[in-house]
Design goal:
elongated, 5-stranded parallel β-sheet, 2 helices, 179 residues
């Protein structure tokens, strides 16, 4: 081993558990005990969280990877990071603010991890499925209350909360709120 990164890849849509053993050996051939490391490589399941669950401005903020320990912090970030995949499953951990339009153009499943999980759309934000196949399960989809003077009627003039163009959208066990 020459100190280069060791790349572990899953070559299917299924997660894989890898066990890696490492030891050191000096020039005389003396070896240290083997230290084992286990990790799961899952190319399909990603996590998205905000608020208290997500990491808050610490040294690892740049290294968000969509894992449960380092979830993406916005739906847009998750969609952009996984756009190259044919299929992705996003687990929404809490009520996630959606502050800008998000376009999904692949096969995607969005799951709320608890009864209070879902997407909270700001005025002008929406989810568009373009040439994609999206299933949303166990999520609350809510239009955030508009501030006084900008009313929900202004929102209705711009874009719908959910829009489908040459794609499919299925909602299962979801609650949709908004005027």
């Amino acid at each position: 081993y020459k100190g280069e990164p060791l790349l572990l890849e899953s070559h299917s849509e299924h997660g894989h558990l890898f066990h890696v053993g490492a030891f050191t050996q000096d020039k005389q051939g003396n070896s240290s005990p083997i230290t084992w490391f286990s990790t799961i490589i899952d190319p399909t399941n990603f996590y998205v969280a905000s608020g208290d669950f997500a990491l808050q401005e610490d040294e690892f903020q740049e290294q968000l990877e969509g894992t449960l320990g380092r979830p993406f912090t916005s739906l847009q970030e998750a969609v952009e990071a996984t756009a190259h995949l044919d299929f992705v499953r996003l687990h929404i951990i809490d009520m996630l603010p959606v502050t800008e339009p998000v376009v999904i153009n692949s096969k995607c499943e969005i799951y709320g991890t608890s009864a209070g999980s879902g997407l909270l759309f700001s005025q002008g934000a929406y989810l568009q499925i373009r040439d994609g196949d999206v299933v949303i399960k166990n999520c609350v989809l809510e239009l955030q209350n508009a501030s006084a003077g900008s009313g929900v009627s202004d929102y209705k003039k711009s874009k719908p909360l959910l829009a489908v163009a040459k794609g499919k959208l299925s909602l299962e066990d979801c609650e949709v709120f908004g005027d």
